[in-house]
Design brief:
five-stranded antiparallel sheet, Rossmann fold, single chain, 2 domains
């Protein structure tokens, strides 16, 4: 007797793919899901951009019993949609071997990842019998959309587009954004608290103009969203992914040469506010789109988590320093040609204090 397909699907572990541009709030959203999981055994695969696993460290700092550190796997060898064969399958194997068994897997892609190649990998024989895509969640920056951008600071890109109108349909950042929402089963709009009602209407209008079909859109502030909204969509996205048209459907591969990243070592600081001011300078003078990392503050036993999108900087103490050295490191990400020297000058006083 053949098996009932619906019964077979119940044996698969559901995976939620969380995609979104740099600084949109993916990690904050996932951290909230972990802390509000109400006993559900979760695991996370987090794909970094750059040399330091900041997002993974943020998630490991949650201290959630049902998602211990060994349930969080970091992939730092490049964009997950480009390295799916080399990195994703082994990571999935490691998670599925955990005891007690994981009930749901969250996959946080890098800001540059295209979700479609990752979803297509769920058809592979080594994967399809064990996991299914519960849904693709695209996280978008409401404040940026209200201002007519897909990310917080794209002046350099705007200048290129003005200079050559042919770039309108060849803009890598716009294409990444459109490909992400084209594959989404749910869209989470963040940072609505930073815009007024008119701004929220502009953001939603811009988003709906990019959505190729009807998709539910929900709002979240500081990542606070009921996990039930994200988990348990039950879409089985892999079965429909070929119907979701993207810019890269006719390409055999893609690259991310439009972005640069590097790490700046930061000694202990005395004033987090002064550090924030220097990060703002790095955004203004060097063109940094995203800065994230951890810093030690003199006299404080807690680790300072720093995150910046363009000139907007937030910082908070996330946990006590452990056995690791009290060594601060900031990842700086920007468009190709990002001025590293200017970023280092902006943070120069910090380096000089080492």
């Amino acid at each position: 007797m053949s098996s009932n397909p619906s019964q077979v699907s119940l044996t698969k572990v559901p995976c939620t793919i969380v995609t979104g541009f740099l600084g949109s709030g993916k990690t904050t959203l996932i951290r909230h899901v972990l802390t509000e999981a109400k006993g559900r055994r979760l695991a996370v695969i987090v794909n970094e951009f750059g040399d330091v696993g900041i997002d993974g460290e943020i998630l490991k700092g949650c201290g959630v019993e049902t998602c211990p550190e060994e349930n969080i796997v970091e992939l730092a060898n490049g964009c997950i949609c480009c390295t799916v064969a080399d990195d994703f399958v082994p990571a999935l194997d490691a998670i599925l071997a955990l005891e007690p068994k994981v009930e749901h897997i969250l996959i946080e892609t890098s800001g540059l990842a295209l979700p479609k190649p990752l979803v297509q990998a769920f058809h592979w024989p080594a994967i399809r019998s064990r996991v299914t895509v519960d849904g693709v969640v695209a996280v978008v920056d409401g404040e940026a959309l209200a201002a007519g951008r897909v990310a917080n600071d794209l002046e350099a890109l705007a200048e290129q587009r003005v200079a050559d109108a042919a770039l309108d349909h060849d803009d890598p950042i716009e294409e990444v954004f459109e490909d992400q929402v084209a594959c989404a089963d749910l869209v989470v709009m963040t940072k609505g608290d930073l815009i007024d009602r008119d701004g929220a209407e502009r953001a939603r209008a811009a988003l709906h103009a990019s959505l190729p079909r009807a998709v539910r859109v929900v709002s979240a502030v500081a990542g606070r969203l009921d996990p039930a909204v994200l988990l348990g969509l039950g879409v089985g996205t892999e079965a429909d992914i070929e119907n979701r048209r993207t810019h890269h459907d006719d390409e055999l591969d893609h690259d991310h040469d439009d972005f640069d990243s590097f790490v700046i070592n930061v000694p202990e600081v005395t004033d987090p506010a002064e550090l924030s001011g220097r990060i703002v300078r790095a955004a203004e003078e060097a063109g940094a789109l995203r800065v994230k990392g951890f810093v030690a503050v003199i006299g404080k036993p807690m680790r300072l988590l720093v995150q910046a999108v363009g000139p907007r900087v937030t910082h908070q103490y996330d946990r006590a320093w452990g056995a690791e050295p009290r060594a601060g490191r900031l990842v700086v990400i920007g468009l190709k040609g990002l001025d590293r020297a200017a970023a280092e000058r902006a943070l120069g006083a910090l380096e000089a204090a080492a």
